[in-house]
Specification:
The protein has a single domain, classed as Rossmann fold (3-Layer(aba) Sandwich). It is built from 7 helices and 10 strands. The chain has helices at 9-26, 41-52, 80-87, 109-122, 159-165, 184-188, 203-211; strands at residues 2-6, 31-34, 62-65, 67-69, 99-100, 128-131, 153-156, 178-181, 192-197, 229-234. The strands form 2 sheets. It has a 7-stranded parallel beta sheet, covered by helices on one side. The protein has a 3-stranded antiparallel beta sheet with strand order 4-8-7, covered by helices on one side. The chain is globular. The relative contact order is 0.18. The structure holds 2-amino-2-deoxy-6-O-phosphono-alpha-D-glucopyranose. 2-amino-2-deoxy-6-O-phosphono-alpha-D-glucopyranose binds at residues 35-39, 66-67, 132-134, 140-141, 161, 165. 2-amino-2-deoxy-6-O-phosphono-alpha-D-glucopyranose (GLP) binds at residues 35-39, 66-67, 132-134, 140-141, 161, 165.
Length: 241
């Protein structure tokens, strides 16, 4: 695990965007795994800036998002589909047929999850997966559990996650209780991983992810087993390392 601690959120976002931009410059048809949450917003803004200044071209890039709330359609302002359009896709020259986000309204979840996995495989696998991390150590929506869930699946969200994510909704009742998420194996199969975290409220989670036992009770701890992980933290998130 390569750990980079930077001074603030702005520098974190620039570093992360530069890593993703290099990937795209070196391989224009890169398959990029994308994340939502507040953490990657600055990275997306920086990528948009790099695109607008002519430094990167998304025309051949293929993307797969980590997760989506179950029950929300793509037009819902709280959906991750809406989020991705708002912060990234509507500002860049990505080909819409290359964008993949789990369908929150899928009628047959089992088939939808299998198809998502097949599409990732058909695209040649994920070259670099961007990750945030939940306070409880979740990645994507892989919540603390007794076992690592391998592939894309339907998740029951933790109370803690529902509470944390309620800040984006009018009330806690509006937060969906389930989501579709890539599994741990899906994430671990990506060639490279780039995890971002900021703020002192995540410092213990980060400490345990890096130094603790590898356990499904802290899903991100599994990243210790991946051969190519870069973690970018601000001073707060890295304060216990
Ligand atoms: C959600 C997403 C995760 C994300 C997490 C952290 O639960 N499913 O992929 O990492 O939020 O969010 P934030 O970056 O806002 O702390």
């Amino acid at each position: 695990m390569r750990i980079i601690i930077v001074k603030d959120y702005e520098e974190l976002s620039k570093r992360a965007a530069n890593i993703l931009a290099s990937q795209i410059i070196l391989k224009p048809s890169s398959v990029i795994g994308l994340a939502t949450g507040s953490t990657p917003i600055g990275t997306y803004q920086e990528l948009v800036r790099l695109y607008k200044s002519g430094n990167i071209d998304f025309s051949e890039v293929v993307t797969f998002n980590l997760d989506e709330y179950y029950g929300l359609d793509r037009y819902d302002k709280q959906s991750y589909y809406f989020f991705m359009n708002k912060y990234l896709f509507s500002h860049i020259n990505i080909d819409r047929k290359n964008v993949h986000i789990p369908d929150g309204k899928a009628e047959n979840i089992y088939i939808a999850c299998k198809t998502y996995e097949k599409k990732i495989k058909k695209a040649g696998g994920i070259d670099i997966q961007l990750l945030g991390i939940g306070r409880n150590g979740h990645i994507g929506f892989n919540e603390p559990d007794m076992k690592f869930e391998a592939l894309t699946h339907l998740v029951n969200l933790d109370e803690d996650t529902i509470k944390a994510n309620s800040r984006f909704f009018n009330s806690i009742e509006e937060v969906p209780k389930q989501a579709i998420s890539m599994g741990i194996k899906t994430i671990m199969n990506s060639k490279k991983i780039l995890l971002l975290a900021y703020g002192a409220q995540k410092n213990e989670t980060i400490y345990n992810m890096v130094n603790g036992r590898i356990t499904p009770e802290l899903p991100a701890s599994v990243l210790q087993l991946h051969p190519d992980v870069t973690v970018i933290l601000d001073k707060g998130a890295g304060s216990l390392l």
